[in-house]
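Deliverable D5.2: sample structural annotation.
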Amino acid sequence: MNVLARKVTVFIIGCAFIINTCGCATPYMAHPEFKERHKAIRSASIMPPEVDAYVLTFKGDKKRLHELVPIMEKTTFEEIEKALTSKGYEIKKLDLSEPVLKANPNLRTSLFNVRKLFVKSLEDIAKRKEKKFTYSLGPEVNVFADLTNSDILVFVKEEGVKKSSGEVAKDVAKGAVLSAACLLIGVIYVPIPQTCATIVHIAAVDSNDGAILWYINNSYNVNWNPENQNQMARLVKSLINYFPDSAFKEKKKKGTTQKIAGEIKEQKLVVPVATDPLAVQH
């Protein structure tokens, strides 16, 4: 490895270290009013995760992994649902399955439009277009909020990529520590370490005005195998766990504790009196 190559390698590794440490320090971003608005969030509906997965070939083409996509969608949805439920939120089902969309073309159009707005918002967030975190999907979300009457809608965009054996061989031939080729994973350009990478974007959106209240991604560490669903479950869980517990969870817990304490206090201890059955008078 020549001097220039060593310098480039050190620079890339240094950048990766900085991104990783900075990302871990502040793993999520929130709307200026999130703390106040969060107090009123009781329920959530999870939008169908927008997932893509493919193999990067030797020629740089993308070969979509069609069979893997629904598996990733299911894993992602279930992990978010479990986490939010454990945090005290009421999960309201939002059916946007293919039969439902086929029967309602307008709903399909709304889903397409709102996903497009979400991707645009992710691009703006990546570019830090707003000094304050005041990004919004607008009133387009109302269509879905009306179907469930939930307080927030959870949006997910996820993309996984694997290198083909030819692409890996090419990297080895170049002697690269990290791949020199940067791929567009979701909306952020990141180097693909080793043989695979996955990035997940999760956002909690206000059902009323479409404001993105809370957002997180794993751009500081994309080295996850999209074909390993145990890894994918851990990745999604690690991200959504940063979302705070419901403000009503503690109140409900306190209320239940007080109720039980009150019942115990009011309960009277009755000591049965033993009787001799032979002494009973007829």
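Annotation notes: The longest strand covers residues 152-163. The radius of gyration is 26 Å.
The annotation will be released with the project's public dataset once the embargo ends.
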